[in-house]
């Protein structure tokens, strides 16, 4: 949870939180900011591919360590950047960290957790994002405007601390087992039961990346002059705090099953995006959007982790890397398309379009059992 919190809550989503300050400091248009967001997700995708290749050879500790150091160095570089090339390099490096970090916990859970508790633990780990987001909000409230770089230095320090902790806790080296892992080919990844999982991950990547990129900008643009920094930070904090309810995702899945949970989560994501896109100046709509989006997005990550573990039980990290690869494709396509749409039709249109895609995801549900 600590590693996921710094890699997602800080390294990945911190860009969207501080987007207005970054735009002002570096004088970048919205279309360029969207392309930068897509570039950060491209680095994430490259890391995922490498994790899928290396997981069975090096084990979870080495991969999580690389991810933590990527977050530490990348966010420090962003804080110290004096031009857009250094800024982009830091954002891309920091953006690779979730790709290194998240999937290896599937193998770590298999090695460290009893079978009957494994799926609940896998559902719990992604909720670290909510705690990271909740911590980032107050920092944005205190350190905005020209002081935003100090927040990124604190982000880097938090990433270093989480990395050191994970080095102490996680098992080193690959799992030592008598059975030989299955040979990987296209057929292994393209098994029939994986298709709806991949499509859901793709949609989830688009919907999530659009919201995280544009939510704060939508609020700051619509807010009264002088109030936008505080409102945006409070929105971020409320979203993260509500998202900590994601720790109960495993219990919800056990009670409702993955299929009904899938319908509920993507429906809530659609409502949250629609509210923010259509009424960003209404405090009630913004507040409800934050409270709905936080837990549903965190639980969506948990749903993918559990669903992938059921589809690929023999090599969990490799299978989950494939799942998150499709999520990564969505996160690359989402910001670039949203930036272009927002430049011509406004930020609200991009958020409403993401909501429509979220509803369409009901067509790719998990198995009934």
TrEMBL record:
<feature type="transmembrane region" description="Helical">
    <location>
        <begin position="234"/>
        <end position="256"/>
    </location>
</feature>
<feature type="transmembrane region" description="Helical">
    <location>
        <begin position="123"/>
        <end position="144"/>
    </location>
</feature>
<dbReference type="InterPro" id="IPR020846">
    <property type="entry name" value="MFS_dom"/>
</dbReference>
<feature type="transmembrane region" description="Helical">
    <location>
        <begin position="86"/>
        <end position="103"/>
    </location>
</feature>
<feature type="transmembrane region" description="Helical">
    <location>
        <begin position="319"/>
        <end position="341"/>
    </location>
</feature>
<dbReference type="Pfam" id="PF06779">
    <property type="entry name" value="MFS_4"/>
</dbReference>
<feature type="transmembrane region" description="Helical">
    <location>
        <begin position="292"/>
        <end position="312"/>
    </location>
</feature>
<feature type="transmembrane region" description="Helical">
    <location>
        <begin position="194"/>
        <end position="214"/>
    </location>
</feature>
<protein>
    <submittedName>
        <fullName>YbfB/YjiJ family MFS transporter</fullName>
    </submittedName>
</protein>
<keyword id="KW-0472">Membrane</keyword>
<feature type="domain" description="Major facilitator superfamily (MFS) profile">
    <location>
        <begin position="1"/>
        <end position="369"/>
    </location>
</feature>
<feature type="transmembrane region" description="Helical">
    <location>
        <begin position="263"/>
        <end position="286"/>
    </location>
</feature>
<dbReference type="GO" id="GO:0005886">
    <property type="term" value="C:plasma membrane"/>
</dbReference>
<keyword id="KW-1133">Transmembrane helix</keyword>
<dbReference type="InterPro" id="IPR010645">
    <property type="entry name" value="MFS_4"/>
</dbReference>
<keyword id="KW-0812">Transmembrane</keyword>
<dbReference type="InterPro" id="IPR036259">
    <property type="entry name" value="MFS_trans_sf"/>
</dbReference>
<feature type="transmembrane region" description="Helical">
    <location>
        <begin position="32"/>
        <end position="55"/>
    </location>
</feature>
<feature type="transmembrane region" description="Helical">
    <location>
        <begin position="62"/>
        <end position="80"/>
    </location>
</feature>
<feature type="transmembrane region" description="Helical">
    <location>
        <begin position="150"/>
        <end position="173"/>
    </location>
</feature>
<feature type="transmembrane region" description="Helical">
    <location>
        <begin position="347"/>
        <end position="364"/>
    </location>
</feature>
<dbReference type="GO" id="GO:0022857">
    <property type="term" value="F:transmembrane transporter activity"/>
</dbReference>
